[in-house]
Amino acid sequence: MCRSRYVYVLFSAEGIPVTQSPGASSTQAVEPSTRATEPSAEDAEPSLPAAEWYELTPIEAAEPAPPSGPLTPAQAFDALYAFCAPTLVRQTYLLTGRRALARESVERAFQLAWQHWPEVAVDRDPTGWVRAAAHEYALAPWHRLRPRLWRTDTWRTPTLSASPDQTGTALTDRALIHVLLKLPPPYRRTVLLYDGLGLDLPETAAETEASTPAAAGRLLYAREAVAARLPELADTEELHRRLADAANGEGPWIVRPCSPFAARRRGERRARRWIHAATAFAALLLSTTAVAVRTAPDHYEPPVAPGAPIRGIPPKGAMGPLSQDQLDLRAKLRSATTGGGPQRLAPESR
């Protein structure tokens, strides 16, 4: 799959290879990026409940310490996460308009990357690999079935005014985000990749899993829809600038992603839960099969046909009283046996 040339995450120092986990066939060293990006700015909103799992606080980028030796897989993953996680959160927020979903999508993408780290480590564009996973998770249609997600971050009507906030920084371009959210998800993703991140058309088509003509049609439709609602964005250069600022600029209020260690730990915990669930399901299936084999009949027993009366045969009569002739015969037999000899035969002794 083609990947982005606009932002590359490079997670090794000059001349220092990346040590891969067992099972990787080769290693690939990547260069450090020349600049770091942070997530987008957004206007300060009313404080959310303390139990929420994301925060709205400023993030100050910390300079990573220079590595003293070959990077381990965990260190390389942490460098990749620290570089592109805030920017991916901003991009995902442009696609969804939900802070919670934006953070969750990026964390799930990095968890998936950690599970497939030997593949991601040798990919020519690790950032593009994670970005594609985050965008696909964020735009999944089944998120609409999660009412709690939509209750915790309700979309408010955007304002076109650029009044400064408490820190003096202009508010996030809420009008542009509102227009993007009116587009269908594939069109929204296409215009973000092409005009916001600077990918060329074949790379955009490859990342969105569409043909190049289909990607071009989506891009033209998205530009027309944005220009119809925001006439000042009819110029493609202005649209590119606004989208690039929204996707890669800086702002006072952003969604704070979790730490790289927490992302790795959650991914490993999720993988263990799936393994345990699969093991339990396999054990249940084997137990059910064993019980079925033990209790099932070992030979065929044909069913008994229901009874039916046989016609044409006279019914058997019941015993009735003796007739006079039978009574006379019985009396004659009794008189002959009682007086003339024994009633039963007996052997003679010799």
Walkthrough of the structure:
Residues 19-47, 300-326 are annotated as: Disordered. Keywords: DNA-binding, Membrane, Sigma factor, Transcription, Transcription regulation, Transmembrane, Transmembrane helix. One of its GO terms (biological process) is DNA-templated transcription initiation. InterPro entries: RNA_pol_sigma-70-like, RNA_pol_sigma_r2, RNA_pol_sigma_r3/r4-like, WH-like_DNA-bd_sf. With 350 residues, the protein is an all-alpha fold. The protein contains twelve helices and no strands. Among the domains are: 73-155 and 250-280, no CATH class; 173-249, Arc Repressor Mutant, subunit A. The chain has helices at residues 73-96, 99-115, 117-121, 126-138, 147-151, 174-181, 185-196, 201-207, 212-229, 236-248, 260-295, 324-339. Mean pLDDT is 73; it is low at 1-62 and 154-171.
